[in-house]
């Protein structure tokens, strides 16, 4: 009789076949796990940073080597001039010289870093906030502000400067950039397209369509998301639950990265690698820069309704211009004389812009109908003749008076 606490174990019948199946000498080796399809696509867990907010350099890294000091000095010069341009443009709105102006103050590292990362022959697709990037690219500032002035379709010639018109509808430039990049690649041209995007634009369908098309057809385009934390007044937390916007590229098979957008050295390093990736024929690359706009969305916006002064002040301590200046001074690449000379250049740039913008432009109202269609539609011809008749009647009334 077996004790009550001992459980009876049923007998196991072992056959020679079972022994052979269980034998470690004949067991088939396990199939190695397939590599993760997301390998090489995921961004860093934390934004890439090469400088602390106080300008102290962090340990160097092999994946993002520091750009040459000459390039960083030029970046500083363009950032100082760009900031002075931005403050002057903001003042012009208060004087009634501009209808509206979206400032990019605080985003200088992104604006200038992007233009330095591409060639003059590459194409840039800006949003309405990229005025600073366009002047950094060498476009006449009066031509840049012409659209915001409201007296012409686009102040500059896009084909001459390889820069699309500033885009007001959110994210439509994402599709345009993908199409142009694919077309250039199809024709064997060594061209990269860089599309600027705000965080709000990543919530639009055109963003996803553009990124997906670029990924499928390996179009050489860099999507550069400037995450300045607000889509007008809507905070990022109300737009996405993703760990960061950079993760949005993974779903389309696009390698992505996130970077401290107020670290000029890191921005230039990351964008340089992204552009090189696209130019080498590997398809698109998505970069998210964590930055902040110090001014309201536009001069017509009251930012105090949705963010407090403490938040703005905290970002003021991360000023990208001061950050790069400190670093270059410590490297011996910048001194008081050089800083003063660049500041003087920026003031002269602003004064020239102010003088030329204060001159009242001569505008032909009939030019409103130019360049709308290659062949004007009957409705457009009719409208143009109506305006022509009204202008003639106004001149006749002035003559009678």
Give an account of the 3D structure:
- This protein has about 400 residues and is an alpha/beta fold.
- It has 13 helices and seven strands.
- The chain has a five-stranded parallel beta sheet with strand order 1-2-3-7-6, sandwiched between helices. A two-stranded antiparallel ribbon has the order 4-5.
- α2 runs antiparallel to α11 (about 320-330), α2 runs parallel beside α12 (about 335-360) and α7 (about 170-185) runs parallel beside α8 (about 205-215).
- The longest helix has 26 residues, at about 70-95.
- It starts with 15 loop residues before the first helix and ends with a helix.
Largest sheet: 5 strands, parallel
Instruction: Give the count of helical stretches.
Output: 13
- What fraction strand? 5-15%
User: How many strand elements?
Assistant: 7
- The helix content is 40-55%
Overall 3D shape? globular
**Overall pLDDT score:** 91
Unreliable parts: 1-14, 18-24
Topology readout:
Blueprint: H1 16-22, H2 69-94, H3 108-117, E1 123-125, H4 131-136, H5 141-149, H6 158-161, H7 172-186, E2 193-198, H8 205-216, E3 221-227, E4 230-231, E5 234-235, E6 256-260, H9 264-279, E7 285-290, H10 309-316, H11 320-331, H12 336-358, H13 378-400
Helix pairs in contact: 2-3, 2-11, 2-12, 3-9, 7-8
List keywords for this structure.
401 residues; 13 helices; 8% strand; globular; disordered N terminus
Short description:
The chain has about 400 residues and is an alpha/beta fold. It has helices spanning about 15-20, 70-95, 110-115, 130-135, 140-150, 160, 170-185, 205-215, 265-280, 310-315, 320-330, 335-360, 380-400; strands at about 125, 195-200, 220-225, 230, 235, 255-260, 285-290.
């Amino acid at each position: 009789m077996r004790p009550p606490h001992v459980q009876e174990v049923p007998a196991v019948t072992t056959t020679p076949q079972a022994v052979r199946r269980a034998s470690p000498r004949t067991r088939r080796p396990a199939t190695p796990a397939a590599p993760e399809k997301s390998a090489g696509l995921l961004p860093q867990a934390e934004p890439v940073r090469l400088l602390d907010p106080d300008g102290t350099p962090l340990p160097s890294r092999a994946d993002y080597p520091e750009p040459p000091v000459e390039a960083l000095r030029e970046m500083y010069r363009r950032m100082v001039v760009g900031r002075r341009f931005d403050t002057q443009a903001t003042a012009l709105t208060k004087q009634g010289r501009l209808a509206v102006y979206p400032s990019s103050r605080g985003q200088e590292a992104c604006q200038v870093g992007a233009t330095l990362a591409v060639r003059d022959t590459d194409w840039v697709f800006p949003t309405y906030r990229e005025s600073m990037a366009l002047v950094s690219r060498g476009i006449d500032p009066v031509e840049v502000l012409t659209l915001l002035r409201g007296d012409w379709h686009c102040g500059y010639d896009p084909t001459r400067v390889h820069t699309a018109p500033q885009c007001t509808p959110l994210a439509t430039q994402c599709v345009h950039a993908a199409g142009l990049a694919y077309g250039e690649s199809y024709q064997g041209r060594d061209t990269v397209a860089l599309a600027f995007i705000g965080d709000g634009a990543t919530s639009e369908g055109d963003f996803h369509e553009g990124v997906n098309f670029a990924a499928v057809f390996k179009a050489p385009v860099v999507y550069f998301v400037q995450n300045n934390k607000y889509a007008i007044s809507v905070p990022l937390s109300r737009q996405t639950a993703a760990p960061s916007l950079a993760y949005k590229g993974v779903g389309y098979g696009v390698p992505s990265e996130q970077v401290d957008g107020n670290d000029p050295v890191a921005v230039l390093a990351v964008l340089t690698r992204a552009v090189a990736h696209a130019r080498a024929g590997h398809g698109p690359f998505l970069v998210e820069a964590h930055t902040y706009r110090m001014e309201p969305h536009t001069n017509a916006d009251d930012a105090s309704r949705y963010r407090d002064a403490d938040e703005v002040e905290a970002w003021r301590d991360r000023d990208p211009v001061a950050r790069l200046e400190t670093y270059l001074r410590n490297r011996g690449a910048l001194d008081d004389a050089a800083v003063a000379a660049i500041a003087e250049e920026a003031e002269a740039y602003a004064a020239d812009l102010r003088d030329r913008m204060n001159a009242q432009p001569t505008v032909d109202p009939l030019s409103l109908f130019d360049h709308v269609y290659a062949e004007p539609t009957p409705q457009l011809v009719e409208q143009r003749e109506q305006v022509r008749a009204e202008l003639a009647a106004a001149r006749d009334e002035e003559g009678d008076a």
